[in-house]
Amino acid sequence: MLHWVGKKPLDVVRHFPAQLCETAGVENPPAEPSYDAFVSGGHNLLFHGDNKEILSSLLIAGFRGEVDLIYIDPPFDSGADYVRKVRLRGQSKMLKGEGHTAIEQTQYEDIWANDNYLQFMYERLILMRELLSERGSIYLHCDPNKSHYLKLLMDEVFGEGNFLNDISWCYSEREAAKSHFNWKHDCLLFYCKNKETDRIFNWQDIALEYAASSLEKYNLNDSDNRKYQIRGRGGHLTGKQQLKLEDERKYPDWTYRDYLDTKEGVPPRDYFVDIDFENRASRNRTDYPTQKPERLLERVIKASSNKGSIVLDCFCGSGTTAAVAEKLGRRWIVADLNKGAIQTAIKRLQGVIDEKNGDLIENGRGFIHYRVNNYDFAKQDELKKIIISKYGIQKDNADLFFDGTVGGKLAKIVDLNRPLNRLDIQIIKDEIANNRPDETRDIAVFCNGSEMGIIAELAQEKNPINKIAICDIYQDGVITNQPAEADVQIAIKDKRTTVKIIDYISPSILARMEIDRTIFNEQIDDFRAQIDCVLIDTDYNGRHFNIAESDLPKKKTDLIKGEYALTLPRTGAKVAVKIVDMLGEEIIEVA
After folding, report:
1. At 296, which helix (H) or strand (E)?
2. Closest among 495, 565, 562, 549 to 24, alpha carbons compared
3. Across-strand partners of 85?
4. In CATH, what number is assigned to the domain containing residue 500?
5. Do 554 and 545 touch, CB atoms closer than 8 A?
């Protein structure tokens, strides 16, 4: 059993209500997800938020023991920041001067203190085991950095006896190292819920094809034109060479006909050498930095789920698991904390569903997008990065409460979406009193505005051991919230509407490109270069967004159309237009 500082079991499951955000192809969505609604409604689920809270909510909502397959590709504790390079649509050359068309957007930081990482994974694996069905399996995707720790965690949570495989996925894409043997594989730790049950494993569906040299041995044909070879039954005949037809005649009791059409393929091995990363030009490729190939997920999903099985991925990233599950006729539930990942997944899944409905025999299912206890972590992360850089804060990833140190003081960045309040100050004081009684350093608190009187009250405290100083980033000129601007014309007549996007500008994109609006307008001749996709709800109810029409450019060089003519479902319906830009920021215009 593995031990670490702060190890504690997860003995309480808390429920967080879900907020309905938008739907795609689903009528009358439930305000909150439940297993009964999921089964009867025929839709799939996409969640935005912390997956610990999402998994807890799924248990409360009736999904305990109902998931047949879990695949997760969690943070590897690689020590790296994973960055998505965002290039404006239709742009291939660098801008003049300081600007550039490639924008780096952090998807998540994979930097952990070891004990924190183990507790993070431990809590989530416990919840996943409760969701897994008795016939179910889990694949944990990792690399050699932490595979040994994660193997011990999986042994503890799922039981050593339920370990099935440590699968090596071998690939070719990685920079060559010259100081050690090159890493050319990831690990997939494969466990089942209960090895004693009739668990799902469809090996025939993923069996490998025979090598050409093996097929050449089936060089005989019977009267029905079935291909076969002669094989020996025992030791009287050598098995090292191909037996001839004469052997069948000479030794009828010691030979048999091995027919090619009875073969089900080569049973799968615990190393995959036939699946490489999808190249950059692949139609399935997104800009998400840790995206895995669809063929890898296809093998996992085919092997360990049946049609109609529920597949769960709570670190979904670009949505590969959901996309493949959709194509293979499985039900899926996916989640991610990162807003950029959610936007990438929504766009990708909308395309998969449209393709199935348009071209394939089996229609695609719709999906519902919920938020669970989500406080816009992506924006908080970006604002924290700005503050850390601007004020020279030295980060301390091992400290779970303070963000680092600055000028000999402990640095604390509070919630930047609201002003500092007295509760924030009390929480800081409680942390020192309860957990750090010997701490003598002063504290610098970074906030975005503060309630009236707080600074004066702190100044009047008599000789505090840990003096608290307030640094208001707003007063220092840090702009934290500049919404995008859009000029959208929506005309409605009877049951017809026309939508025309006249202009769009994103201050976030301008800031990332380090360019002002005048230079941007001079060098980017089409505002649509900033826009990733357009979604339209033709009967907007003001509570959630239902995607009735989508404009999803297929190539990076393609632009949105920008003009749309649509039929409304009824007279008097409201029309909402959602514009999603290349950084995943949204703006909605309603008429």
Report:
1. helix 294-304
2. 549
3. 104
4. 2.60.40
5. no
| Distance separating alpha carbons of residues 289 and 94, to the nearest angstrom | 22
Contact in structure between 125 and 157 (CB atoms under 8 Å): yes
Confidence of residue 585 (pLDDT cuts 50, 70, 90): confident
pLDDT band for position 10 (50/70/90)?
Answer: confident
Measuring CA to CA, how many Å separate 40 from each of 29, 370, 544? 11, 18, 21
Residues shown for the chain? 591
How many Cα neighbours within 13 Å face the side chain of 502?
7
Predicted confidence (pLDDT) at residue 234 exceeds the cutoff of 80: no
Q: Flag whether 478 is in a domain.
A: no
CATH number at residue 292: 3.40.50.150
- 197 and 233 in a single domain? The answer is no
Cα dist from 249 to 81, 230, 244, whole Å: 69, 10, 9
- Cα(138)–Cα(191) distance, rounded to whole angstroms? 5
Quickly count: other Cβ atoms within 10 Å of residue 462's Cβ: 4
Same domain, 250 and 384: no
Number of domains, the chain: 4
Strands 67-72 and 310-313, bridge-based pairing: parallel
- Regarding whether 317 and 398 lie in a shared domain, the answer is no
Do the domain assignments include residue 490?
A: yes
d(CA 297, CA 212): 26
Distance CA 218, CA 215 (A): 6
**Range(s) of the domain holding residue 234:** 210-262
Residue that has been written with the tokens 């099935």 in this structure: 164
State phi, psi for 143 to the nearest 5 degrees: -125, 175
Question: Helices then strands (H, E): number in the chain?
Answer: 14, 28
**Which of helix, strand or coil describes residue 223?**
coil
Asked if the structure places residue 13 within a domain, the reply is no
Query: What secondary structure letter does DSSP report for 292?
Result: P
Q: How far apart are CA 119 and CA 2, in angstroms?
A: 11
**pLDDT band with cut points at 50, 70 and 90 for residue 509:** confident
Q: Give the containing element (helix H, strand E) for 49.
A: strand 44-49
Listing DSSP states for 535-573 in one string gives EEETT--SSSEEESEEE--SSTT-----EEEEE-SSTT-
Give 512-543 pLDDT, tens digit per residue: 666 666 666 666 778 898 898 899 999 998 87
Side chain identity at residue 31, one-letter code: A
Residues 294 and 160 grouped into a single domain: yes
- Shared domain for 539 and 565, answered yes or no, is yes
